[in-house]
């Protein structure tokens, strides 16, 4: 629970999380090694080398301090300069020290200057223009003395090279690791795309690949997809077969009833009509969302045609709002059946149906509202179950309903990877049914 605050800032995709797991330890290792090297090893070595060089400089300045002229001083220190591999000269009266600019990556120069100023009280200026030369300007009684010697006597040679080498190989190895990781994650991504497409009612070609565990998951998905397809086909065939086989005896019953007196045949004819309605509902439910194949559909155009057909059928329905635009992969025949069922329910239990459409980059929402009694919140889950009949407040028996209308709509929504949500209409006060499908 203590790490919940960090969750919104973490990446959500598998690629990004894997890259973070891969890169973060490398960065931490570079920081630890770099800081330990700079603070422990490099600074200690630089301090030792600077102290040794300052003792040599002190030897030169001690000799200069007892001389009377600049020429005598230079002549006296010449043997020491040769032995110490240094050069010395006095600056003229109007001559200014040449400091120059340091290189941007010379991060050890500030420590060198700090150490020299602490060890050489007479030090006026320090010039470290490159990694090969160092110039010290010291105040003496004979004038400003310039000492030039090899920079490598003050600090290790090119200390930045270690950091550059570490960064270079870290980038190279991280790039290689990321490419390999991407090849390992690609089968997982393909499996996720195939599962998502199947959840939305589309079957895309997929063959298991990658590591053993990913192959096993892919094979299990293919088996599961095949079982679901077989079950859906068997359900459709069973209900269609039952509905089709029962039509023949019903036809015979109708023929027999037509030969009876009208007073005796009327009650039986009503029973036969109800049985015919049940068979038609079973057949419609068996088709479910399997009719048609997904294709790019403009939802606005489809809804306009559905509402137009509903008006021609005598239903009071209007397309009142359309927000957004674009096409979506849908089964148009199934969506038409779902919306027509919602409009039919709306005008059966109310007087008017309002249809609206909202399209966003991630989803579409088809909403049908009515001014009927609505469905209580505690009964909405039960209402979408097949063959479910609610209490008389909803007038469920009106029109000889069999309790499959909302179940068909929910089945079609699920087949598109979406959901059917029921609520209360804020505009009309009745039922509000939303079909929400991801794009």
TrEMBL record:
Xref: SUPFAM superfamilies: ATPase domain of HSP90 chaperone/DNA topoisomerase II/histidine kinase, Homodimeric domain of signal transducing histidine kinase
Residue ranges occupied by any HAMP domain in the UniProt entry: 182-233
Topology class, membrane: Multi-pass membrane protein
EC class: transferase
Catalysis: reaction(s): ATP + protein L-histidine = ADP + protein N-phospho-L-histidine
Transmembrane region(s): 14-38, 162-181
Alphabetized InterPro entries for the sequence: 2C_sensor_his_kinase, HAMP_dom, HATPase_C_sf, HATPase_dom, His_kinase_dom, HisK_dim/P_dom, HisK_dim/P_sf, Sig_transdc_His_kin-like_C
CC annotations in GO: plasma membrane
Coiled-coil stretches noted in the UniProt entry, renumbered to this chain: none
GO molecular function: ATP binding; phosphorelay sensor kinase activity
Classification via Pfam families: HATPase_c (PF02518), HisKA (PF00512)
EC number(s) on file: 2.7.13.3
Designated name of the protein: histidine kinase
Domain of life: Bacteria
Domain (Histidine kinase) ranges: 241-439
Annotated compartments: Cell inner membrane
Keywords, ordered alphabetically: ATP-binding, Cell inner membrane, Cell membrane, Kinase, Membrane, Nucleotide-binding, Phosphoprotein, Transferase, Transmembrane, Transmembrane helix, Two-component regulatory system
Organism: Ruegeria meonggei
């Amino acid at each position: 629970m203590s790490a919940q605050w960090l969750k919104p800032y973490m990446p959500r995709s598998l690629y990004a999380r894997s890259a973070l797991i891969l890169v973060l330890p490398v960065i931490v290792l570079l920081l630890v090694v770099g800081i330990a090297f700079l603070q422990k090893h490099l600074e200690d070595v630089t301090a030792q080398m600077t102290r040794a060089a300052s003792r040599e400089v002190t030897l030169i300045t001690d000799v200069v301090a007892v001389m009377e002229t600049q020429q005598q001083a230079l002549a006296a220190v010449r043997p020491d300069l040769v032995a110490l591999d240094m050069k010395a000269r006095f600056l003229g009266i109007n001559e200014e020290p040449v400091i120059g600019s340091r290189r941007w990556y010379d991060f050890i120069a500030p420590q060198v200057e700090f150490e020299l100023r602490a060890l050489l009280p007479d030090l006026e200026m320090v010039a470290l223009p490159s990694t090969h030369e160092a110039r010290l300007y010291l105040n003496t009684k004979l004038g400003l003395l310039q000492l030039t010697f090899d920079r490598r006597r003050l600090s290790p040679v090119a200390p930045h090279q270690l950091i550059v080498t570490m960064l270079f190989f870290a980038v190279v190895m991280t790039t290689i690791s990321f490419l390999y990781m991407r090849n390992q994650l690609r089968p997982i991504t393909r499996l996720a795309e195939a599962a998502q497409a199947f959840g939305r009612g589309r079957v895309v070609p997929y063959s298991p690949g990658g590591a053993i565990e990913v192959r096993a998951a892919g094979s299990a998905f293919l088996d599961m997809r095949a079982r679901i397809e077989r079950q859906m086909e068997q359900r459709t065939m069973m209900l269609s077969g039952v509905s089709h086989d029962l039509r023949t005896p019903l036809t015979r019953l109708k023929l027999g009833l037509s030969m009876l007196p009208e007073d005796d045949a009327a009650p039986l004819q009503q029973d036969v009509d109800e049985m015919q309605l049940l068979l038609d509902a079973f057949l419609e439910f068996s088709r479910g969302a399997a009719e048609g194949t997904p294709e790019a559909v403009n939802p606005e155009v489809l809804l306009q045609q559905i509402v137009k057909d509903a008006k021609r059928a005598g239903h009071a329905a209007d397309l009142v709002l359309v927000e957004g635009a674009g096409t979506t992969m849908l089964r148009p025949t199934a969506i038409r059946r779902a919306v027509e069922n919602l409009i039919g329910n709306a005008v059966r239990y109310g007087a008017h149906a309002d249809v609206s459409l909202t399209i966003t980059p991630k989803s579409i929402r088809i909403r049908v509202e009515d001014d009927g009694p609505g469905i209580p919140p505690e009964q909405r889950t039960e209402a979408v179950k097949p063959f479910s009949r609610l209490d008389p407040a909803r007038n469920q028996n009106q029109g000889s309903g069999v309790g499959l209308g909302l179940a068909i709509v929910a089945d079609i929504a699920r087949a598109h990877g979406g959901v059917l949500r029921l609520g209360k209409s804020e505009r009309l006060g009745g039922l509000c049914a939303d079909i929400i499908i991801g794009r």
